[in-house]
Amino acid sequence: MHASLMSTMSVRRLVLGTVLGHRRQVDYLWAHCHGLSTGRHTAEPPAPGRQEDQDTTFQGHIPEGELEISYSRSSGPGGQNVNKVNSKVEIRFHLETASWIPAAGRERLKAQWGHLVNKRGQLVLSCEEQRSQHANTRICLEQLRALVFEACRPPSAGPDAATQQLHERRRARASARRVEEKRARSHWRRLMQPPRIF
């Protein structure tokens, strides 16, 4: 009887400890999922302007749902495979309405890569380098990502006035040095000529 009572109490302690342990874990996970802290220190507030940075810079994500991806027969390498599989990939999207690209990036894309934009305002990329459709799709997406990154890169600031003046002085000195060397060579050639006999 005594042993049975002890075993029952042990089971109750075990169950209670397990429940409390799970409850602590749930409380801890809930607090962290909601940005709270279970200790003395509170969670840091989100940095201001982070959303604005996301709106003005390209993060590298390309929403494939906004792309028109089509496949056709390739004229590249592959032997008989090119006659059986639509391995050529063509990706197009409307540039003006591409909200995942910042406005400045869209303008630079239009200015730098206008030959890739068709009459309907769609930027078109194609790839048929590989034999597989999947590989060509991946290459095409990487090309698009590289183009957008390049277009969204902020233009480098030019040199300041002091640096420009320094470059101009260096160019002037180099030009004067070339003129002096040319005169010296001309004078040396005249000295090396044999004397004329009349």
Question: How would you summarize the topology of this molecule?
Answer:
Layout: H1 2-33, H2 50-56, E1 68-72, E2 88-94, H3 103-112, E3 122-127, H4 133-152, H5 161-192
Domain Prokaryotic-type class I peptide chain release factors: 73-89
Region (Disordered): 38-57, 156-187
EC number: 3.1.1.29
Label this structure with key terms.
198 residues; Double Stranded RNA Binding Domain; elongated; three-stranded antiparallel sheet; mainly alpha; 5 helices
Textual characterization of the structure:
The termini are far apart. Helices cover 51% and strands 9% of the residues. The longest helix has 32 residues, at 2-33. It is mostly helical. It has a three-stranded antiparallel β-sheet with strand order 1-2-3, with helices on one face. The protein has a domain at 65-152: Double Stranded RNA Binding Domain (2-Layer Sandwich), CATH 3.30.160.
